[in-house]
Amino acid sequence: MGEKVSVIVPVYNLEDYIDICMESIVKQSYQNLEIILINDGSLDNSLEKCKEWERKDSRVVVINQKNSGVSAARNAGLDAATGKYVTFVDGDDIISKNAISLLVGMYSESNIVLTMGKTTRISEYNYNFIEHSTVTDADNYKTVEKLLFEKIDMAVYNKLFLKEKTDSIRFVQGKKINEDKYFLFEYLLHSEGMVVSTKCELYGYFCRESSVTNEVFSPKYLDAIYFSEEIIKSLEKYKKDLLPLGHYNLMCSRFMVLKKIVRTKQVKQNKDLFIKIRKDILKAGIRKDVNMRFIKKSEYYVLAINKYLYALFVLIVDKTNKFTK
Q1: Which is more confident, 113 or 127?
Q2: What distance in Å separates the CA atoms of residue 233 and residue 204, rounded to the nearest whole number?
């Protein structure tokens, strides 16, 4: 039957999506599941939908809490989880039929601490996942390096964690951006062992057009800088040889915020913030101890000239990337 897997699903105002999400979970080829639905103070019919699933399937457990955010919901799920493994699924996404079976199957050796698959953006829920691909492995610190270089998916979904290794860490509450990244970083930093990954499409991230076209700049994006600074603090304590990458990651987070300001056409409204972050980037300088990509170096030098040229640079790069996809 295999070891039990706890599937943690935060739910907030998802009455139109939770049934489709749950169908993809309960019909997994791997059946030894504990499915924990955390209703995070939904204002719609989500709670009743969750309770319906609890009545229909004995593997489903519903937790109802006041609205506290996705991190608090995931933490509640971790507190309640009893499986050997833990995975996370957002309540408006879907997973492939064999997702959990493949992730569990990659735990083939006792020194493996994490398995992960590929996430694909979908626009419809009848998506046909490509579940055949190669499997690769790396030690946990190599994966930390990739995380800091932003070369792997930083989300916690589409990954299978060892429950016992999550007991000492929790998601930081009150933050809205990159809390996944920091949880994954802390997990890997304190887990000696191997990480096994596959390019099989196991997770479908549903991207609603309205959430993209209506995007505006928000102070929540500053959370990315906060977490990068926290990562540096952890590296100073536990892994000083990765500090150069930590500082590079902080630079990338600062650039991300600037680009959000540019893309949402909010430069004038956030003039002081833009100037401060620009000053922080230029003060830190180019990392000569990190093999930076050409485009990132170019971004730095253009920013050093002036903010208007930088804004034009961002828009040109975005348009170029759009046409080359």
Answers
A1: 113
A2: 34
